Amino acid sequence: MRYVIFGLSLAFFSACQEKDTIQEQPDLPPNIVLVLTDDQGWGDLSISGNANLSTPNIDALAADGATLDRFYVCPVCSPTRAELLTGRYHTRGGVYSTSTGGERLDLDETTLAEILKEAGYRTAAFGKWHNGMQYPYHPNGRGFNEYYGFCSGHWGNYFSPMLERNGELVKGNGFVIDDFTSEAMSFMEKNREGPFFVYLPFNTPHSPMQVPDRWWDKFKDKDLELRHRDPEKEDVLHTRAALAMCENIDWNVGRLQEKISELDLQEQTIFIYLSDNGPNGYRWNGGMKGRKGHTDEGGVRSPLFIKWQGKIKEGTKVETIAGAIDLLPTLAEMAKVPTTGTKPLDGISLRPLLLDEHVDWPDRTLISHWRGKTSVRSQQYRLGHQGQLFDMMSDPGQEQDLSRQLPDVKASLEQVKVDWEKNVWSELPKQDLRTFPLGHPDFAHTQIPARDGKAHGNIERSNRFPNNTFFSNWKAVSDSITWEIEVVESGTFEVDIYYTCAEENLGSTFEISVGNAQLEGTITEAHDPPLTGMEHDRVERQESYVKDFRPLTVGQIHLEQGTQQLVLKALEIPGQKVMDFRLMMFHRI
């Protein structure tokens, strides 16, 4: 009997010891899931008071976590992405445009993914990247172990389109937002032991306005209860499509939350939801002035919800102004990951506000800037880019200029603007001298799209918005397309060209040249698909339609390291034109 008692005593002692050990262990690093929508305004949610739609899953994030009621992003896409990834104003990182290289984030900037990866996180991004395509601007070069999506600023087809997975071109699986969400869920399941960082930069409700019937059918004939403050400016059909796309997003947010619950990771996962700029159309937005592209309140105020079960009190509402620049320091502090390797941050950690820690919060201002227009937001006021002063607490529509009544307030904010433009905006070079890198030794594939090229002669771009375009009207041997590139390391590459060509135009011979290296190819197989995309559009688009471009393996070429010009030109044209050109892929051998 005593042996049994002795054994029980040992078991009891061992259990107590194990319990003490568990209690003494530090908290495991939290997983992070960050959802960023594209062109969804603050007002495009039912929790914002919009009775035109229902977004219960997103609304639940506010009920179960925190709402940052006055949260600010940039007027357009790529700058916001740069700011949330770096904690720094986008102009510091070289982002000044949304296409043809101006969307790239400088390589000496450190991203949130990089610091989390360094701390042991598995990292992945699924969706629209929009901060550079060629490695190391590519997501796989900015801290993400896995990437699936498209790197351009917008895409021409949302139903099983051409996408890429870690640099290799692949075909998508169904509606892109559903597809990206499914990929994220699979990644979370594979890495459930954590910690993981999932970045989901969705590309809706950005145009083209495409959404599955399941959501469109609800809205196609819907009477809108709430309208833009200037109803004559509103395109009701466009609004209906945008709201249908927002409800699809909400459904996918619900899927993500269900997967987190299924994996029993609710208390181990920080979930963040926001948009990248104001709405991409004139529609109801709480009466605020401005839309996408504007530095007024309606162009830069974003919904921001953050949930961390057991840590952030349910229903927390933060009225203090904050912005995209604050996300990196906030998430790094919550994950207990140092930011010592980054450049000086413009953002500050919001952790004390989210966890209701009693601290003296400093007064601050936030800057909104785009295309030479700068607006300054304090807790109470906004200085518009034309110098007007508005009390945002009593006048959210920016109707009454208080410059004369409050000259001291205006002067103070004017000085903030002057200092920011002198010390921050001035960091942006007057001329972009960055080349497009090709053949980095750490990455097998380099995509060289029409988007980044310059057309010469008769060649025309398929649309004035370059992001998803192709080149056509290639009629003469004097025509060419050029790219300013840097071969990062010498090597031999196999080259594919993605093209279309009608039967009557077969036989054109073309040349790819980089410095002294040349590679010739001939188009011997017809491939002449029609333009597509319009069959899925709910509203006529402004962007380019697309085609099913086919790859042609041209051959191998040896490239020497250095900055050079890549030239694509025709040598012989037996027909009326050479081809329509979408992109080149260089594969390191």
Description:
This protein is of the alpha+beta class and 589 residues long. The protein has 3 domains: 31-358, Alkaline Phosphatase, subunit A; 369-427, no CATH class; 436-588, Sandwich (Jelly Rolls), CATH 2.60.120. It has 11 helices and 29 strands. The chain has helices at 2-24, 56-64, 77-86, 112-118, 176-190, 213-219, 236-262, 297-300, 327-334, 351-354, 407-423; strands spanning 31-38, 66-68, 71-72, 122-128, 146-150, 162-165, 168-171, 196-205, 269-275, 301-302, 304-307, 316-318, 322-323, 366-370, 373-377, 381-383, 389-391, 436-438, 445-449, 454-456, 460-461, 471-472, 480-487, 491-500, 509-514, 517-522, 550-559, 562-572, 580-588. The chain has a 10-stranded mixed sheet with strand order 7-6-5-4-8-1-9-11-2-12, with helices on both faces. Strand 14 and strand 15 (373-377) form a beta hairpin. Helix 5 runs parallel beside helix 7 and helix 6 (213-219) crosses helix 7 (236-262). The longest helix is centred in the middle third of the chain and has 27 residues, at 236-262. The radius of gyration is 26 Å and the shape is globular. Mean pLDDT is 95; it is low at 1-25.
